[in-house]
Amino acid sequence: MNKQSCFSYPAPTCRNCIHDIVNQIIQIQKKAVFNNDCEGCNDPLTRELYNTRPLTFYLCNGEPFTVIVPGTTNTTALFRIEELKGDCCTLRILERLPNGGNVNCTNRTAIINLCCVCGIQCFEPIYCAPCNEGC
Questions:
Q1: Has residue 128 got a pLDDT over 50?
Q2: What is this structure's pTM?
Q3: Residue 56 lies in a domain
Q4: Considering the domain boundaries, does residue 53 fall inside one?
Q5: Is residue 32 in some structural domain?
């Protein structure tokens, strides 16, 4: 699917519970990022803020949506939701590191049409630094 055709339709055509949950996660993540920008002198010196809910998306054939991690030969099924427009969702690619399961937040994205998704699996929240220009 090319990005142009997906993002040219602002209204969702297959809105369902998956679409609603994705939209809710985006709103929660935006609040976490906003709170991170407002740290002041009264905040604790050390604070871990979780601004990302890693997700795996399952296609209607039951298989997880996977992509190749840029710069590697590894594949991943872990993503951070970055943006939702209509039925299309921009996902930040997350990579599980071999050192005990830590997750690396890349600066690369993929796009998925939520009409092709029949399930999602949520994982424990993590912190991802804001995306650089590569996102």
A1: yes
A2: 0.77
A3: yes
A4: yes
A5: no
Domain count, the chain: 1
Could you tell me which residues are beta bridge partners of residue 19? none
Judge whether 129 lies within some domain.
no
Amino acid at 35: N
State how beta strands 67-68 and 75-76 pair. Answer: antiparallel
What's the CATH number where 55 sits? 2.30.30
Please, which residues have CB within 8 angstroms of residue 72's CB and are 6 or more apart in sequence? 95
Beta bridge partners of 64: 58
Encode burial over 107-117: b for 16+ CB neighbours within 10 A, e otherwise.
ebbbbbebbbb
Cβ-Cβ contacts under 8 Å for 106 (sequence gap 6 or more): 69, 70, 92, 93, 94, 95
Confidence of residue 121 (pLDDT cuts 50, 70, 90): very high
In order of 19, 59, 110, the CA distances from 24 in angstroms are: 9, 20, 20
Rounded Cα gap, residues 38 and 34, in angstroms? 7
Which tens digit of pLDDT belongs to each residue from 77-116? 999 999 999 999 999 999 988 876 789 999 999 999 999 9
